[in-house]
């Protein structure tokens, strides 16, 4: 029985949805039961079909009923399944918003990474044995009293650390900047997130390298951006491609990882850097120079930063301690013009009020102590050793299976398979043989590539892992 | 940041113009960007307005900046004739996205807070002298080696800390939960942000208390939510109002701060808590129980958590160390059903990859050491002392001007003026008398209320601050 009052202030569709809701609550319609078709119910009540559609839409949106093409409208079963009556339909809630889950293979790699008996060639981070825990300890011993720890929160970041980073940029890269142009973030990742939220709108076009680390994150997709690829050769991306993409799609921002790129380890040549900076200046497009790896050069030089070449404030620079200290410290920094910084700070004030003072104090002491440079020098020699080991094994035992370029720095070797093997088969068979691999497709490459991280395993482990990888290839070919 | 040396041989205006020039050169101010007004910059640096005029004149004469009547002073675009064409139009970029800047008065309060010669009755945090720096030090001394620091990143939070928090919820509130239902966030704020992003869509309706701390943040507005108010009386909000709002506006989530509410210090009565939990269960609406203050009871009891009364998983609980340890530690936690947690983790993986391990280790050791409870006991007795001092002064000297209820815990006294005074006049006159006040309108109240924080000043300072506040009232009436 329906009681519709056409003179009521409450809209009719709302009266319908309220009464239907009550019927469901009282058990008149039980979970899974089929509701009248829209037309039938409209006839029965004596309203337009669209009014019933509206009422059904509302109940669908809160997850109380489900509509399936072909099979009509039903009272939701999920809602009532295990959880007691009254429990919100979390499924309906969590479908709101725009955060895509990670790529299934990334999730799988993440799961497998917890298993310490597997050899991890897939993760993007440094191994635990490279973490300078014993060097950091004296740093946090120096963190003294209440005054310091109680520094007023600053959404731009602890000012002494911003000063230290401005100095670091000058000493290391000869880049002039001021502490006011520096913003400390929870890794480079947070800066990238803030930029997608604050400088771009859904539907905007951006350009990124292909392949790229960025493909492994659903970040840009979640922000509703249109993503265009800049292919990489031995000298990095081609600046002319940026122009073409601008002309065709009006790209609004270029995200690049120009030095020891993740995953190819390719660096953009000096000439192309200059051309790109000029090109973007002439097109007035900002470039994000995402630079976690530049200190990790095996040959002691990495060329100039684009930030150094930039005279018009086009280049937004991103630094991070994740690849030189450890990802768990969560310290990154953005160098950008004032309007960008203050916009990002507005956003951040809503997101988390800024970073905890603890990692900022630790980072500040460490970077000012002189120990940071020492540590990086040690780290680089260790990384080079591991890379050499991996390269010599690959040369000796893998030449039938794959090709690669020798990296001049960074953490990765980018492998190209000579023989086509289905990636998921390769991945799973490798896991059976106790090796975790990172298939290139996750990073936006076509089938047949693998990113090998030599930074997570000791030399001995690397040998075993590569042996198991080789066994996998032999099994599959 | 300006570094003016009043003893230098160089005239002050020259120091200003030199530093401004440098800021422009280094890209802190880009071509076309607007400079502070003369008055504002003069205030900021602490010089006469005429000095800034002189400095601006100088830079205008060399064409580096431009002054237009009515539209203020800008960095010249012409000067950059050739290169500047390429500087992106940052204004257009930063207009993207949906982050509203904070309320102008909040910004002003924030600025004034840097001036340590003013008495701060406005800030929402504990004062520096209440920060347990000396108790935390032994905690981070215990943070040992690489293994621990190098814990694999976990976007849900460091597992041992999640275990500690589950135990804390049991011991302190008799709430049963599991480490898997706990997510560690960068303060409660990040949890609130994540919920608005993941559980709600633009256009959705929510209900919050009025007045409320939430009005001081543009968070919900930025997320495009429709916000409906739940008025507060001496027993907190009225559960029937939630029902009415549901019927009228289909509110999807209720955000509440039920214990020692910010700013009223009112606690929701036990009966209303129960009614509310029942009501929300019958409507299937989740309640966010935002609870930073429950440990700060002056009478040793705070009643039950709604989370404890909740049998259907309707209540999402938010805890924080911000009001018991310090806001700078940035440790908060959410207790929620699995689907909610995993959704929020997807989002967080795109935002910042999770929290730094440092504050998590410190919090974990501190909360497990037994020292945390000791510290809270000490903190509460100190807060009660300060509150008593404030109350007795208010009773003795302010009875002509205002009324209030005595708080039973928390950090705030909510003052109602007996005589109407325009809020901005009150605020500015108070600042002239060296007191920073928080006008109630910023917190969603009608004119004529003030939130007084007794937690930031020592008893002696409180006395002086209140004396200056009284002087202000007398001047304005
Ligand atoms: C190119 C690149 N950018 C950004 C990041 C994110 O780094 P962070 O840990 O600083 O957030 C990574 C991490 O792998 C990376 O490789
Ligand atoms: C009611 C309420 N919720 C949340 C917060 C944010 O706290 P946190 O520092 O934990 O992010 C505050 C801080 O003032 C608050 O008063």
How do the strands and helices of this protein lay out in sequence?
2 copies of one chain form a homodimer.
Chain A: H1 12-25, H2 38-45, H3 49-61, E1 65-68, E2 72-75, H4 90-94, H5 104-113, E3 119-120, H6 133-141, H7 146-149, H8 159-173, E4 182-185, H9 187-198, E5 205-210, H10 219-222, E6 226-233, E7 236-237, H11 239-249, E8 253-256, H12 270-283, E9 287-290, H13 306-309, E10 315-320, E11 332-335, H14 338-351, H15 357-368, H16 371-397, E12 402-404, E13 412-417, H17 423-432, E14 435-436, E15 438-439, E16 449-453, H18 459-476
Parallel strand pairs in A: 3-14, 5-6, 5-8, 8-9, 9-10
Antiparallel strand pairs in A: 1-2, 4-11, 6-7, 10-11, 12-13, 13-16, 15-16
Helix pairs in contact in A: 1-3, 2-3, 6-15, 8-15, 9-14, 11-12, 16-18, 17-18
Bound molecules: pyridoxal-5'-phosphate (2 copies).
Q: Which assembly state applies to the chains in this document?
A: homodimer
Question: Could you list the spans of chain A in which at least 5 consecutive residues all have pLDDT below 50?
Answer: 79-85
Into which percent range does the helicity of residues of chain A fall? 40-55%
- Indicate the mean pLDDT of chain A: 88
Strand order in space, largest sheet of chain A: 4-11-10-9-8-5-6-7
* Strand residues, percent of chain A: 5-15%
N/C terminus separation of chain A: 69 Å
Small-molecule binders: pyridoxal-5'-phosphate
Number of helical segments with 4 or more residues of chain A: 18
Radius of gyration of chain A: 28 Å
Domain HTH gntR-type (chains A, B): 10-78
GO molecular function (chains A, B): transaminase activity
Cofactor (chains A, B): pyridoxal 5'-phosphate
Keywords (chains A, B): Aminotransferase, DNA-binding, Pyridoxal phosphate, Transcription, Transcription regulation, Transferase
């Amino acid at each position: 029985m329906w009681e519709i009052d056409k003179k009521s202030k409450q809209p009719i569709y709302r009266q319908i949805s309220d009464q239907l809701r009550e019927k469901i609550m009282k058990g008149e319609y039980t979970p899974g039961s089929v509701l009248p078709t829209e037309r039938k119910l409209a006839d029965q009540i004596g309203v337009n079909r669209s009014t019933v559609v509206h009422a059904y839409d509302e109940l669908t949106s809160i997850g109380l009923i489900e509509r399936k093409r072909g099979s009509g409208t039903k009272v939701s079963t999920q809602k009532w399944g295990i959880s007691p009556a009254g429990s919100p339909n979390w499924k309906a809630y969590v479908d709101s918003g725009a955060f895509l889950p990670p790529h299934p293979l990334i999730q799988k790699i993440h799961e497998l990474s917890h298993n310490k008996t597997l050899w991890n060639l897939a993760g993007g981070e440094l191994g635990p044995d490279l973490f300078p825990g014993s060097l950091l300890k004296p740093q946090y011993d120096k963190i003294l009293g209440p005054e310091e720890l109680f520094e007023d929160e600053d959404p731009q970041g602890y000012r002494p650390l911003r000063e230290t980073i401005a100095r670091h940029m000058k000493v290391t890269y000869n880049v002039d900047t001021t502490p006011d142009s520096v913003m400390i973030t929870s890794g480079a990742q947070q800066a990238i997130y803030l930029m997608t939220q604050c400088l771009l709108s859904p539907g905007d076009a951006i350009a990124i390298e292909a392949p790229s680390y960025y493909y492994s994150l659903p970040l840009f997709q979640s922000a509703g951006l249109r993503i265009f690829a800049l292919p990489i050769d031995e000298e990095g991306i081609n600046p002319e491609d940026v122009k073409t993409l601008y002309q065709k799609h009006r790209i609004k921002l270029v995200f690049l990882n120009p030095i020891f790129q993740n995953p190819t380890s390719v660096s953009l040549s000096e000439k192309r850097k200059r051309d790109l900076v000029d090109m973007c200046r002439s097109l007035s497009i900002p470039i994000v120079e995402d630079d976690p790896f530049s200190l990790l050069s095996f040959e002691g030089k990495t060329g100039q930063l684009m930030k150094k070449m930039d005279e018009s404030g086009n280049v937004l620079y991103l630094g991070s301690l994740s690849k030189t200290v450890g990802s768990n410290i969560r310290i990154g920094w953005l160098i950008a013009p004032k309007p960008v910084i203050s916009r990002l700070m507005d956003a951040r004030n809503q997101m988390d009020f800024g970073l905890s003072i603890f990692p900022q104090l630790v980072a500040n002491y460490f970077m000012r102590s002189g120990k940071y440079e020492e540590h990086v020098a040690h780290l680089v020699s260790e990384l080079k050793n591991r890379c050499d080991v991996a390269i010599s094994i690959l040369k000796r035992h893998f030449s039938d299976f794959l090709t690669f370029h020798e990296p001049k720095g960074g953490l990765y070797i980018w492998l190209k398979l000579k023989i086509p093997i289905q990636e998921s088969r390769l991945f799973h068979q490798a896991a059976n043989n106790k090796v975790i691999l990172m298939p290139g497709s996750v990073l936006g490459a076509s089938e047949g590539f693998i990113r090998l991280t030599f930074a997570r395993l000791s030399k001995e482990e690397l040998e075993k892992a590569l042996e198991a990888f080789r066994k996998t290839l032999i099994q599959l070919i």
